[in-house]
Every structure is written in C-alpha cells, then in structure tokens.
Amino acid sequence: MLDFTMPLFNLATPEIFVLTMASIILLVDVFVPKKFGDFLYYVVLLTLVGAFFLVLQQFNTIDEPVVTFSGGYVVDKLALLTKLFVLVASLFSFLYAKPYITSRHIVQNDYYVLGLFAVLGMMIMASAYSFLTIYLGLELLSLPLYAMVALQKDSQKATEAAMKYFVMGALASALLLYGISMIYGVTKTINIADLGSIINQLSFNDSSVVMLSMIFIVAGLLFKLGAVPFHMWVPDVYDGAPASVTLFIASAPKIAAFCITIRVLVEGMPSVAVDWQSILVVVSILSMFGGNLLAIAQKNIKRMLAYSSIAHIGYTLLGLIAGPDAINGYSAAMFYIATYVIVAMGAFGVITIMSSEGVELDKLEDYRGLNARNPWLAFLMLILMFSMAGIPPTVGFFAKLGLLEALVDANYVWLAVLSLIFAIVGAYYYLRVVMYMYFEEPRAETANVKIAMSGSTLAIVSVNSIAALGFGLLPSSLIDLCRISIV
After folding, report:
1. What's the pLDDT score for residue 208?
2. Domain contains 247
3. Which of 39, 243, 265, 472 makes an SS bond possible with 352, Cβ 3.0 to 4.6 Å?
4. Are the beta carbons of 83 and 18 closer than 8 angstroms?
5. Do residues 380 and 465 lie in contact, with contact meaning Cβ atoms separated by under 8 Å?
C-alpha cells in the first residue's frame, strides 16, 4: 500500500501565482481589444513583481530546506535566490523589450505570455528535486523560447534560428532523457535526494552504467548552458532572434540552468565528483578557448557576445570544478553567473535600444563614434564591456578573482593561469568595442540614425549598467547572498 502525503502547496505559491496570472492574461487577451494591449503589459510586469515579493517572503522565513510533492520539489536558499535572480532578470528583459517589439510590430501580448510561461519553467527548474520535475521545467522553458525566437514572422533569419534552436533543443532533451532512463534503471529512483546514497552502494557493473548515464545527463545540461561542444545553437540563435528575445535568452535561463546543474552533479552525484570534474575541466578549457578565439573574428556584435557567453560559461564551470576542494568554489560560480547575467542583460539592452527604430544596428561598425552621438549610452556600454573583460573596479573583476582564488585553493593553479590567459585574450574584443565608440568617427550610414530612448528606457539601462559598477565597488552583499544559498 502506497503512502500518500498531501503536498505543501503553500511552498509553491509563487509558481501557482505566475501560472494563474499567465493563464488569465492569455484568456483576457482573446476578448480585450488590441488598443488595450498596454494594460496587459503592465499586468505582466505586476505579475513578476508580485512573484518576486512572494519569493522574497519565503527567502526571509525559510532557513532549512523543505521537500514536498513526493520528493520532487524543494524550497531552500539556492532555489529561492535563483528565483529572485530569474524574476529580476525577466522584469528587466520585458522592460527593455517593449519599444523594440512595438517598432517591429511583433505581437506584444504573445511575446509577454510566452515569456511568463518561460519564467514559470525557470522557477520550476530552480526548485526541481527529481529528474521528472527537472525535465518538466526544462520543457516549459524551452517550448516558449522556440516560439519567441520565431515571433518576427517576416524575418527569415528569425525563422531559421527558431528551427535550429528547436532541432538542437530536441536533441539535447533526448540525450537528457536517455541518461535519466539509464540511471533510473540502475538506481530505481529519480529523486535527487536519494540518488547519492544509492550510487554509493552499487556494484562495479552498475556503477559503469551510472557513469554512462552521467555523461548523457551532463551533455543535456551543457547544451542548456551553451558550453563547447554543445554550443552550435548559440551564435545562430543570438544573431537570428530579435534583439529583445536574444536579451531574454542570454540572461535568466543561464541562472536556472546553472541551478539544476548544481542539483544534479553536486547534490545528486557527489560520489562520482572526480569523474564529472574531469569532464568539466575539458569542457571549460574548450569553452574558454573556443569562445574567446571565435569572438575575435566576429563583425556582428550579437555573434560576438554569443561566443563571449560560451567563454563565460567556461569560466562559470571553473567554480564547479574547484567546488569539492574549495570552500567558496560553488558560491564563486553562483556569483559569477549572476554578475554575468547582469552585464549581458545590459549589453543586449543597449543593442535593443540602438535597434528600436526599425533599423538593426548589430554590427560592430555601427558603434563607431557612439560617444559623439550619445555620450551617456557610450559610457554605460563602456562599463559593461569593462565588466565582461574583468577590469576593475567593475563587478566582472571580482567575479573572475573569486574563481581564480577558488581554483588556487583547490590546487588547480595551472587551470587558474590558463583561465587568466584566456581572460586577457578576451579583453581584446571587448576593448575593441570601446575603441570604436570613443576613437572612431561615426559611419555615414548610421550617423543620422536617431537613437530613440524614452526616459523610462534610459533609467532602466542606467540602473542595469551602474549595477555592474556598484556591485564592483561594493560586492560583499551579493557575495554573501551566494554563499548563503550554497552551503
């Protein structure tokens, strides 16, 4: 006879709230005239704000992890902090998107409803404590993203990018499911909490199957992160998707994917840490090398930042590699991915603003003489590029410093030196953008193109960019949050 315990539905209040509001907005959109589209836009923003405060209340009141829904859902500091990051990043992404999608005549309500369902998927991923819940969250995130990439129906690039993203995403899901099925066949469980202890008791033959299944699972997770050699979709999707969608894909999903990677590898498979560490060492080196090298050759700023994101994922994996042997390894990785999302969101936000008048200004040449056209926007972009390059006093410097310190503590000095060399290589293409903005004359084709930026848009991009500098000057609060979340 099976024991049934009533789930603690109050722990899932933020997800239930987002799901309810997304469903209501979807239904209301059918009956409300299009001229009231802005009303639904503000309802979407209020939904994100309301969910943020619901999660924040849990963060302040829940100290110990609580597991419910038959072991498939956990509420702990890691899950709650991830949700807070996801909601803030999504809010900024939606704020940036409005002028862009309006000028492109993209259906506004479809964009935001799909975005809300993607946010719901990320929130489920953050609290997922079984492979079933992880897969549910991943698919709930991925399916809306495929549609969002293709929302600009008259763009052949967007349609092609959506097809590539869908096919590659299906392949990654298949790899992940195959790995899950193998590990379930051996351990007879899909719950993360039970996985570690069961793996410790397996025979040699069963352990070999676990190793093989781990490789498939890691491959599926690395695809979501966009690490080499599962990076093929990243530059094409970043370039082909509308800039507002690229901004969304480049920000919040990275944090959610990092969270489930921590769950599966660190909490679910600690006994085979040596094996998955070895895999991540190779992936990290290839990501840093390939991402930085290919970014140098790009003439399109969206593709440049796409390859840059691959390199940054390589840096993030360094924290997971050092984690078991360094006190702050995992928290350093969490801090790095959080700060990267802040900076990437700002950089793609600037691209979105530059392209909001119907002209896609996504080539590096388009940023020539930006300081002469809009000094404040150029200054904000300078802060963001400095942070990505890891130049003090921006937050990117302290993020890289934390990872290097964790690597040295874990006796990976050679890897720390190698990552430092790759960081120096990467600084070249970031500083090239700064050179174009401050030391080159504007192109004749773009000199007269107006940069349309409302007061609210100016405030959003300013807060976003100044945060990269502010957290660099005062990083302790964010570092402490990351340390609290991963113990």
Report:
1. 82
2. yes
3. 243
4. no
5. yes
